[in-house]
Structure formats: structure tokens, C-alpha cells
Write a sequence for this structure.
């Protein structure tokens, strides 16, 4: 057959598969003419682990190839590749040697293309470059044709400067009122003799007669992402832009949440504040719907997960606080006297960890101090009624999730002494008290009330863990209860046990195992359980304790972002194979491999031989 005909056939084949489908006909013909066709019989090695990088990248034209990973126990299946998949991409990572072995599972035909030519095209064509990067890591991959409002251009500094209103030291009440009411942003900055901001005034402060303290400060140039994050974390409606980004720097401009929304189209801090102070279920439902859209519009790339989790978690916390407040009003209206005891409302589980990019029914509970001299039996009745009413309000929004099937010995309303008993028996005798079911109680986030009560409980938990050696290894071992799929092959997902399925649960296979393992690392380092520390933050903290495992931990964080990203886009934990393109599958396959390595590292770290 003429060489030109073979070349054209190879080019036509390449064009049907990622990442070659984005290349021009000229590029495809150049690639097709750079290599050769190779045939392998079944059970032959294409290459072995440790082989030096070759001259070609291989594209499977026909047949099935198994990628074999190797450890102390020998070789085991790591991936299954078929038509259109690439072999030899290890040359672009590390020292370029083969990290795995590739063995044919039946008769295979391979198209070889020159590796150097392919590498040059990866540099010239972003889609090819993203594909190569995704082969080894999902970090920083921008393979999605979406744009987040978090990347929108922030208000120009000149615009903000033109709207800045300063109230000088010693200004009279009349001058202060005139300057504040004349501010086009609605905010005026109080400054000292050195031009540093010391407080702010709005129409509200004019009525109360007292200024607000110094707001958070940032330096120019601004980004929408940074500004939105600072406003959300601080709960303020304004930020100060100073020369050096610190409160000691000279004030340059002010930025309000409404000004930021003019340019990016969203006001996360304002939505959270409005939801927290809402007065009715219709009001909350409308604000919740808008909040969900805001988070979804912000999630364009996997690296947006961090900020979208912050927004999603703040939204659910605000909803829970509003439900507790309105439930309290209803309880008192029914004739039940409120308790005057110190108490604290908390969230447990995913909503407490801050692993939410979408709405999910939060698990809430109340801890009240039964050691207080004023404690009476009627206080327990009040908190029990309030917890039930608040939970009922949350259920009324029809949020996804089932909440928590409270295990024996636990209730959503308990005195501090009972909470201490719960944790003591769980840690001291984990097998008889179902540690696996109770593990979500080790993810806590304060909602409202006196946080000092939660700190007392946290100290108790840390002391109990210090004296026990069974709980952490058991939780580490339980991370293997749900393993990620092995790979995608043809039109199915291939599980670790060899079963083929057309869908998988991404919470069960990706998000859950990573969250459970990260919790083990947090418990082992006696981290603050009641801090709003999410899974990503727990993994970042583990880097401090295990710097030699940085590659494994970084890859686990990337995999977690990928998992939450696809869950949010799908709108459900169940991911259908038909929803995934080739690039999606590649990213998820890399994530699956990263999770497997991280779980193995968790077991080797915390489970005795």
C-alpha cells in the first residue's frame, strides 16, 4: 500500500481521538508520517517499568493494553487502555523513565508518532498540552470551556479612588454626617493624621453614633477572587485598600461589596448576610436559590473549588443559623420559656468540614452547659424542642442528603456532660460503640452561641485521644471500605474487583475516602476539631508533618478538587459514564490513582503491621 495512503489513514484515525481532534489536517499528517505501525501479540510487554524513554509515543489503534503497577508484592493492574489511548507519556514527567509496565491483553496494533514532534505540538497547542499534563496530575489543568465570575476584572483602582470619602480627625458630627451621606459608595473612611484608616461610617453608624472598627485591608492591584474571599471571611461590607496592604499603610481607596458586584455580578458576603437575617421561609428559599447559582457560576475550573467551598459552607451555615433563630421565636411563642444557660450550636459532617459547593442538609446540634448553677430540667426540654423545630425547618427546604441517622447514645440536643460521655466511650471502646458510624462527630463547626463550651469539649476529646491507641488505626483501616474505580474502558467504568458499571458514586469513590483519610491525619496531630477546617486544609496541614510525602498529599488535594468539581457540575453524586468526555475520563483516572496511593500511605502510616 502506498505510504501516502497509510499516512492518511493514520491521520484520519488520530483525528477521531483526544487530544488530536483539535489539530489541523497538516499537523495530523505530519504526526502520522513521523512514526511507524507496530503489532504485538497477546501477553507481550510494550515496555517495562524503568525502561528509558523511547523515540515514540504509541497510540492504540486496536486491542487492549494493561498498565501494570509494581510494589513489594509484585505487579498488579493499574489501568486498562483501548482504542485511541496513548502509551509512553511518562517521558514528559520526572526523569522520563517508564513509571509503569504496559502489557498487551490481546492482539494489539499501535501507531507510533515521533515523541519530539508530539512534544513540540503540546507546546504549540493548549489542548494537547493540557492532555499531557492531565496524564500525571490534575493540578492547574484548565481543560474546561467555562469562565468563573471569580476571574472577572475587579473594579479599577482609579474608579475606587474617585469614590473615596475620608473623614478627617476632629471632624464634627455635622461634617461626618454630610460626608457619609454624600458618599457614592455608602461608606466613608475615618482616617488619622497619617492617612491610615481607623474605622468606617455608613448610614447605620450615623444612627447609632458609633463608627465601625477598621475593616480588612488589601493591597493593589486587586483581584475579584481575593476581594470576594476577604469580604466573605470578615463578614464586612467594605475593604480598605492601603499602600502596603496592612492597617498601618496609608489609605488609597475603599471597596464595598456592592461595588465589587457591579463588576463581577455577584455579592457573596451580601447574600450570606441576607440569608442569616432572613425572616421567613419564602425569603430564605429565594436567597438560597440565588446562592446556589452564585456558587455554581463560580466553579469553572477545579482550582475554583477552594473558594466555592468557602461560599457554599457559609451559605449553609447562614441558613442553619436563620432556622435556629426563627425556631427559637416559635418555641417561645408556644409558651416554652427560653433557657439562660451557656450553650453553643454546632454543625457536624461535610457541612462542618466546609466541603460543600452545593446545598446539602446540614447536621446541627446544641451543647448546653449542665454544670452551670442555673441549670434545671426544664432547660433540657427547651433545647430538645428547639433542636427538633430547627431541624424541621431545615428539612422543609427539601435539601439533598439524608442528614444523620443519630446512633444510639447520641441526640441533637445534649448537655456538655453527655457529649463528653459520647466521645469518651467512642474513643476508649471504639468497636463496641461503632466508631465508624460516629466518625462524623469528629468534624465540628461552631454556628452560634458561646464557643468556649465547644473548646471545653475539644480539650476533652484531645485528652481522650492522647490515652488511646486503637481509634486512629481503626479509622485509618476503615478508609479502605470504599475504593475508587480502577479506570474507564470503552463505554464502562471498571471497578477494582473487575466489575463493569455504567456509573459510579463520586462521593463514595472519591470525596468520601479522601475526607475520611484526611480526618485521620487531623486526629493524629490533635488538630482543632471545632475549627472550620475542611479536607483540603487538613491535607495541607499533613504536609507539615509528612514533608517526604508531599507528592502524594498534593495529588490527593488535586483529586479532591476534581471530585467536588464533577459532583457540582453533575448536580448529583451519581456520575454517568455517558456524561464524561475523554478529557474528563483522563482527569478522573489520574485522580483515582492519586486516591489509591494516598489511602495506601494512610494505612502504612497509622495501621501497625
Amino acid at each position: 500500500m502506498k505510504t501516502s495512503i497509510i499516512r492518511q489513514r493514520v491521520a484520519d484515525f488520530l483525528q477521531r481521538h483526544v487530544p488530536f481532534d483539535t489539530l489541523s489536517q497538516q499537523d495530523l499528517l505530519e504526526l502520522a508520517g513521523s512514526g511507524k505501525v507496530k503489532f504485538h501479540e497477546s501477553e507481550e510487554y510494550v515496555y517495562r517499568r524503568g525502561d528509558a524513554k523511547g523515540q515514540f509515543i504509541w497510540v492504540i489503534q486496536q486491542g487492549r493494553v494493561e498498565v501494570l503497577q509494581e510494589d513489594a508484592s509484585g505487579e498488579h493492574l493499574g489501568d486498562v487502555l483501548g482504542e485511541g489511548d496513548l502509551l509512553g507519556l511518562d517521558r514528559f514527567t520526572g526523569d522520563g523513565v517508564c513509571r509503569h509496565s504496559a502489557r498487551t491483553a490481546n492482539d494489539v496494533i499501535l501507531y507510533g508518532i515521533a515523541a519530539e514532534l508530539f512534544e513540540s505540538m503540546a507546546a504549540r497547542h493548549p489542548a494537547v498540552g493540557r492532555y499531557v499534563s492531565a496524564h500525571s496530575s490534575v493540578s492547574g489543568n484548565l481543560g474546561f470551556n467555562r469562565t468563573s465570575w471569580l476571574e472577572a476584572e475587579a473594579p479599577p483602582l482609579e474608579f475606587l479612588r474617585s469614590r473615596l470619602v475620608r473623614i478627617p480627625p476632629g471632624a464634627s458630627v455635622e461634617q461626618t454626617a454630610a460626608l457619609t451621606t454624600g458618599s457614592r459608595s455608602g461608606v466613608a473612611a475615618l482616617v488619622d493624621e497619617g492617612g491610615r484608616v481607623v474605622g468606617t461610617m455608613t448610614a447605620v453608624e450615623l444612627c447609632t453614633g458609633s463608627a465601625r472598627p477598621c475593616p480588612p485591608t488589601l493591597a493593589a492591584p486587586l483581584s475579584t477572587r481575593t476581594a470576594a474571599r476577604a469580604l466573605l471571611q470578615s463578614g464586612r461590607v467594605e475593604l480598605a485598600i492601603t499602600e502596603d496592604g496592612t492597617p498601618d499603610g496609608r489609605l488609597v481607596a475603599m471597596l464595598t461589596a456592592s461595588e465589587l458586584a457591579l463588576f463581577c455580578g455577584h455579592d457573596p458576603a451580601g447574600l450570606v448576610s441576607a440569608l442569616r437575617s432572613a425572616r421567613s421561609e419564602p425569603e430564605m428559599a429565594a436567597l438560597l436559590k440565588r446562592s446556589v447559582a452564585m456558587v455554581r457560576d463560580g466553579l469553572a475550573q477545579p482550582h475554583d473549588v477552594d473558594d466555592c467551598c468557602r461560599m457554599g459552607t457559609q451559605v449553609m451555615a447562614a441558613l442553619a443559623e436563620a432556622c435556629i433563630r426563627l425556631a427559637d421565636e416559635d418555641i417561645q411563642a408556644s409558651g416554652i420559656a427560653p433557657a439562660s444557660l451557656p450553650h453553643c450550636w454546632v454543625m457536624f459532617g461535610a457541612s462542618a468540614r466546609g466541603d460543600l459547593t452545593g446545598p446539602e442538609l446540614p447536621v446541627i446540634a446544641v451543647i448546653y452547659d449542665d454544670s452551670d448553677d442555673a441549670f434545671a430540667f426544664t432547660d433540657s426540654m427547651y433545647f430538645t424542642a428547639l433542636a427538633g423545630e430547627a431541624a424541621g425547618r431545615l428539612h422543609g427546604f427539601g435539601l439533598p442528603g439524608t442528614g444523620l441517622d443519630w446512633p444510639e447514645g447520641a441526640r441533637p440536643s445534649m448537655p456538655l456532660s453527655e457529649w463528653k460521655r459520647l466521645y469518651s466511650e467512642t474513643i476508649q471502646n471504639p468497636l463496641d460503640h461503632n466508631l465508624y458510624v460516629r466518625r462524623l462527630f469528629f468534624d465540628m463547626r461552631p454556628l452560634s452561641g458561646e464557643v468556649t463550651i465547644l473548646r471545653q469539649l475539644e480539650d476533652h476529646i484531645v485528652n481522650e485521644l492522647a490515652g488511646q491507641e486503637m481509634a486512629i488505626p481503626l479509622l485509618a483501616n476503615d478508609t479502605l471500605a470504599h475504593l475508587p474505580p480502577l479506570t474507564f474502558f470503552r463505554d464502562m467504568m471498571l471497578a477494582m474487583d473487575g466489575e463493569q458499571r455504567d456509573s459510579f458514586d463520586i462521593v463514595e469513590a472519591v470525596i468520601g475516602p479522601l475526607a475520611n483519610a484526611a480526618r485521620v491525619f487531623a486526629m493524629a496531630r490533635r488538630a482543632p476539631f471545632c475549627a472550620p477546617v475542611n479536607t483540603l486544609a487538613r491535607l495541607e496541614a499533613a504536609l507539615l508533618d509528612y514533608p517526604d510525602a508531599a507528592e502524594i498529599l498534593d495529588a490527593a488535594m488535586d483529586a479532591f478538587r476534581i471530585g467536588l468539581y464533577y459532583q457540582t457540575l453533575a448536580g448529583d453524586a451519581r456520575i454517568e459514564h455517558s456524561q464524561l468526555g475523554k478529557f474528563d475520563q483522563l482527569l478522573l483516572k489520574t485522580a483515582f490513582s492519586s486516591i489509591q496511593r494516598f489511602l495506601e500511605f494512610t494505612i502504612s502510616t497509622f495501621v501497625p503491621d
